[in-house]
Design goal:
Blueprint lengths: L2 H17 L6 E7 L4 E6 L3 E6 L6 H6 L4 E7 L2 H9 L1 H5 L4 E7 L4 E5 L1 H7 L5 H12 L21 H8 L3
Parallel strand pairs: 3-4, 4-5
Antiparallel strand pairs: 1-2, 2-3, 5-6
């Protein structure tokens, strides 16, 4: 195991343990350093966490036998490009999370492609993912100026309601 992988490996164990502090569902975890994965056994499911330095097509074979799986990898440009290139294939896999980690500033972002592809606008997926990628690399996202899209949760103004409601 390379040094960065070891850091990522240790980071993953700490991350999962800390995330579970409130829920207390983690029963045990089993390390498989030669396979670069850790099995976290929770009261309700087991999640295999794969620690991968550089994402490639090999991941599809690695994760195929696990119902719940996560891949922890560095938040690098190459890994981001792989995510975009393989988005369609990744979004067809249920119960898969990808954790992109920036060890330098101890930041991360997580994506579940299957769930995300169901709720996100396909035309903005890449730019949304790029924003998360850059934020975890310490770049502050700029707010785009321009016309604000109406939200389905916002109430329309009383003027708009009156215009369309009187039947004329």
């Amino acid at each position: 195991m390379m040094n960065m992988d070891k850091q990522l490996y240790d980071w993953t164990i700490n991350y999962v343990k800390n995330k579970d502090l409130a829920f207390r569902k983690l029963v045990k975890f089993t390390e498989h350093p030669t396979e670069d994965n850790i099995e976290f056994e929770f009261k309700d499911k087991t999640i295999a966490h794969f620690i991968i330095d550089k994402l490639s097509d090999k991941i599809f074979n690695l994760i195929k036998d696990h119902e719940h799986k996560a891949i922890t990898c560095p938040n690098s440009e190459d890994n981001f490009k792989f995510l975009i290139k393989e988005w369609k294939k990744l979004s067809e896999i249920k119960n898969l999370s990808l954790v992109f980690v920036n060890l330098k500033i101890n930041d991360k972002w997580i994506i579940n492609p299957h769930t995300h592809s169901m709720i996100a606008d396909p035309s903005t997926i890449e730019s949304g993912l790029r924003t998360m990628f850059e934020t975890a690399n310490g770049k502050v996202a700029e707010v785009k100026k321009g016309k604000k899209k109406a939200s389905m949760f916002e109430e329309s103004s009383s003027e708009e309601q009156e215009e369309g409601m009187d039947g004329e």
